[in-house]
């Protein structure tokens, strides 16, 4: 998975539909999430599309599996995940993820339907991180 900084660098050079294509491409790059993990417990509430996020840990670092049934939403999920992927749980729990995503200006780039679930995605990621950090 690309770093958020790499994605931002590419995103800044693109406009309109090219940005949509980049988001769709990011969604395709997510690790495969097994269907068995797509449950009510991993479902992100408040999204216009179905979104699932599942945390795993490896060597004290968080690794998220995520998926969505909508291509652009899946790209947005990938963007959120790229901000936190493979970082220590305590760091993710305290991180300003919304601030890290601010340069993408998603609210002005995408419809409100597509971005309404972003705060819920961030909250779920940070809840998982806080729980894992506390052991």
UniProtKB/TrEMBL annotation:
Residues 15-127 form the Fe-S metabolism associated domain. It comes from the Bacteria. Signal peptide: none annotated. Gene3D superfamilies: 3.90.1010.10. Belongs to the SufE family. This is Fe-S metabolism associated domain-containing protein.
């Amino acid at each position: 998975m690309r770093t958020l900084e790499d994605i931002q660098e590419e995103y800044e050079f693109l406009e309109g539909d090219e940005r949509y294509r980049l988001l769709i491409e990011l969604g395709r790059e997510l690790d495969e999430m097994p269907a068995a993990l797509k449950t009510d417990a991993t479902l992100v509430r408040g999204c216009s599309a179905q979104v699932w996020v599942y945390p795993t840990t490896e060597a004290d670092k968080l690794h998220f599996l995520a998926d969505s049934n909508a291509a652009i939403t899946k790209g947005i999920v990938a963007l959120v995940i790229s901000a936190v992927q493979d970082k220590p749980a305590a760091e993710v729990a305290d991180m300003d993820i919304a601030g890290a995503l601010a340069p993408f200006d998603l609210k002005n780039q995408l419809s409100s339907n597509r971005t309404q679930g972003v705060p819920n995605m961030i909250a779920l990621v940070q809840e998982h991180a806080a729980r894992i950090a506390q052991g």
